[in-house]
Amino acid sequence: MFSGIDEVDWASLRHACGSARDVPGWLRGLASADAAERQTALDGMFGTVHHEGNVYDSTLACVPFLFSLAAREAVPERGCIVELLVSIGAESGDARARGAVRADGEVFVSLLGDPDPGVRRAAAGAVVRFVDDPARVIGLLRRRIPVERDGRVLLALTEAVGAFVRRYPARAAAVDLLAALSAPPHDPGLRLAALGQLALGAPGRLPADLVPTAVRLLRERSARRARVPDRSANDTLVGRLRRLRPSDEEGARLLRTLHTALGDRTGERTALLAGQLASPDPVDRGNAVWMAAALFRGWRARFTGPVALVGAQLGAEEEWLRDAAVSVLSELFGLAAPAADDLHALVASRPDLWTHRWERGTPTVGGALKALTRSGDPRAVPVLAQILAGPVVPGGLGDEIAHLGPAAAPLAPALRHRLGRIRLDSPAADTLATPLLAALRAIGDTDAVPEVLRLLSGAPDGLGARDRVAGQAVGTLDALGAAARAAPALRALLHTRHAAAAAGALWSADGDAQAVLPVLVRELRQGEPGGRRLAARQLARMGPAARAALPELRRAAASGQAGLRTVAASALWHVGRDPDPVLPVLRAAWSESPGTRGPVARCLAAMGPAAEPLRDLVTAELVAPRRHTARAGGHGGRAIPEDEALLSACEEVLAGLS
Q1: Lower CB density within 10 Å: C or N end of the chain?
Q2: CA triplet 221, 222, 227: central angle to 5 degrees?
């Protein structure tokens, strides 16, 4: 099994952590009778020799020994070793690794009938990947399926047939085999697996009633699973944990495969989710909640029905299911409106959920209240008022209140009171003040001006929390139309890192271009990245009064950073009203950096008929099924509202062109 292992100069070979001298010990550990030693060895192999799918010279040197281990029935848990070989040969993308594993592909053929079901399960897909005789491969799979008795291995064999269909799409016999597996008398789980593989590789062979069939099979499978005795029913810690968060990863994978295959067919996916979310089995519904999250986050469609069904899970007896639904709804913002009644019912009945305190740190806003507030529902206001009246304000509460806009006006006195109590010499002054300022800006509370002015009292020292919050305070005064009352303090900020914000506020106050234009040009030319973008936005506000800044704006619009190019091009339009230097920059940013599409669309809306040459971009965006934030790699928890805002801006652009 390890013949020749000591003849390899392992010390001269490399893996992710350096010298591979420790690899022989791990290879021997894979054959150990001790489970902990085997796990340590496997961790070493995946964590260093094949770290993150990479292939090193030591990885290639391991392949013959891994095959030898995989072929020895006396070695425990060989399925993991076969999976490691498959990963090295198929998932790394390294041609040398593929060749090394393919050279011993016959070993996988012999393992299809291995006594260990874990080995058979891993070998099924390996045969498709590493044996190059397609007629022989489909024959092997066809003969193995009728004699296989392990359900998990049967699913792996079905997935292997699906992989074969995708690799050899002209092989009709493989498609026929999948179609047969999707029909009676096969087990409902196996039929679901076959439907998913058909959807991936041969969608033309799917039944016309795919969604009702899939929902029926899911329920039949769940009913059979529910009759299996719960081995964790004993009163152990593990048993209690399993009952708290029951799991059916196999069922989740079956439905995820089908959703993945349906892709942009959001109508069918929405109907499928509706069936999943209406299942009598809470585990099926829990899986569906997370699949709904993926659909909401990545695609555009009418989600009223599925969102309402996710909201219905808030009344479930299972705490884990309720928490899952809350987590998903909190990402939807305005799209959570169909679930608002359920959210309100949960918030009203469970004051203990209004805030959440982590083991360390300040409390945060509870998920259900957060989701209700982000949806814009004014029924959150009385609860928020009670929290504001309490001894401790949860972190970020003001940011959540801001989503209510003017509807949160009854909270303004409490917000002002909290803002006025912040100690300016506290290290946490900016952390405490910034969310409160966001809420007051959204409400438009002009009575808050004295409390905001207090944040600017004294000369900023360039350090400390008081200085860090100065920019937010300036922006709030500007938004509230009260910049004139802070003119002396604003002028003192013109030579600090808040210069762009202060200059913009001074322009709003007195319209003195001569006083603020040099400051904004200086910041645009040599400020920090955030300050440069803010300077460009402030110049855009000035419009034609900032014509002297056009040369610097042109240079910024040609710079390498996409965000700055976009805001500088927008400012070019607002200041110079010439579309010629603007449109090429906006088109390039739209294509190269999807995250800039929101600002680009807003600029195009402001341009009116001058945006006609870019009509194709917005029309294509409005019919695209996928969210631009998904294509851009995601924008954190604000991916959905940012995409919805883009769609609204695109509609505004087209309205301005008609």
Answers
A1: C
A2: 100
Buried b (16+ CB within 10 A) or exposed e, 554-579: bebbeeeeebbbbbbbbbbbbbbeeb
Q: What is the pLDDT of residue 357?
A: 81
Asked if 511 and 475 touch (Cβ cutoff 8 Å), the reply is no
Euclidean distance between CA atoms 33 and 288, whole angstroms: 40
> Coil, strand, or helix at residue 54?
coil
Structure tokens at 191: 């039929």
Q: Could you tell me how many residues make up the chain?
A: 658
Sequence-separated contacts (24+) of 383-386 with Cβ below 8 Å = 383/347, 383/348, 383/354, 384/408, 384/411, 385/410, 385/411, 385/414, 386/354
- The continuous run of DSSP H or E covering 365 comes out as strand 364-365
pLDDT of residue 359: 64
Q: Is 377 left (phi over 0), alpha (psi -120 to 50) or beta?
A: beta
* Closest residue by Cα to residue 73 from 117, 133, 29: 117
Which 3 state secondary structure label does DSSP give 136?
helix
Count other Cβ atoms within 10 Å, centred on residue 459. Answer: 11
Joined together, the tokens standing for residue 475 give 């922006």
| Model confidence pLDDT, tens digit, residues 326-349 | 999 999 999 999 999 999 999 999
